[in-house]
Amino acid sequence: MIAGTDEVGRGPLAWDVVAAAVILDPAKPISGLADSKKLSHKQRLECFDAIVKNAHCYAVGRASVQEIDQINILHASMLAMSRAVASLKVQPEFVYVDGNRCPRWKYPSEAVVKGDSLVTSISAASVIAKVTRDKEMQELDLQYPGYGFASNMGYPTPAHLAALESLGTTPIHRRTFAPVARVLRAAQMP
Predict the structure, then answer these.
(1) Which residue segments constitute the domains of the chain, with CATH numbers given?
(2) pLDDT tens for residues 6-22?
(3) Is there a contact between 175 and 184 (Cβ–Cβ < 8 Å)?
């Protein structure tokens, strides 16, 4: 039982960092599976459905905006991956982690730089995490119109930065991230 874990959402100015953990079934390979960033939207959705249907198990974990602001994005990413792995219905014997470090946990594990392109279980986790977070951002776009969350996914695009300047911040913005912190400071000035 070998798991892969990956997160999405370290760079955005808004919303949670979302991680997934997946244990694939070697008898049921996922056709077209790759790093979620290299797949089209349609391919990601097809892979997502195939993973949900064919994996031994998968789970999603997250760290909230408040946790990101309290412990920083790196530690929040590790926390989200830890929560995803801990939530698997089958506990893994080994975990591959995308990146250059592993969370502090009980699992034998290995960090793999560019693991989302090299290890299929990490690729699967990247797909689950990205599709999950993107769907949430599309829903948040309806709740907080004007920021373009459905298209920018919370990343600091020129349009998102302009919306921050004109509309101010929302409860889902990460207050410790520099562009958001600048807007908050400017709003406090007389």
Answers:
(1) 2-133 (3.30.420.10), 143-184 (no CATH)
(2) 999 999 999 999 999 99
(3) yes
Pull the structure tokens for residue 172.
């889902």
CA angle 1, 17, 125 (to 5 degrees): 25
Number of other residues whose CB lies within 10 A of the CB of residue 155: 16
Token pair in block for residue 92: 């893994």
pTM of the model: 0.95
Classified as helix, coil or strand, 32 is: coil
69 class by beta-carbon count within 10 Å (0-12 exposed, 13-18 middle, 19+ buried) = middle
Q: How far apart are CA 42 and CA 68, in angstroms?
A: 30
For residue range 57-83, what is the model confidence (pLDDT) as tens digits?
A: 999 999 999 999 999 999 999 999 999
d(CA 159, CA 24): 39
Q: What percent of the chain has pLDDT over 70?
A: 99
Strand partners, 60: 20
Q: How far apart are CA 126 and CA 122, in angstroms?
A: 6
35: phi then psi, degrees, rounded to nearest 5: -50, 130
- Calculate the CA 29 to chain-centre distance: 23
How far apart, in whole angstroms, are the C-alpha atoms of residue 14 and residue 177?
9
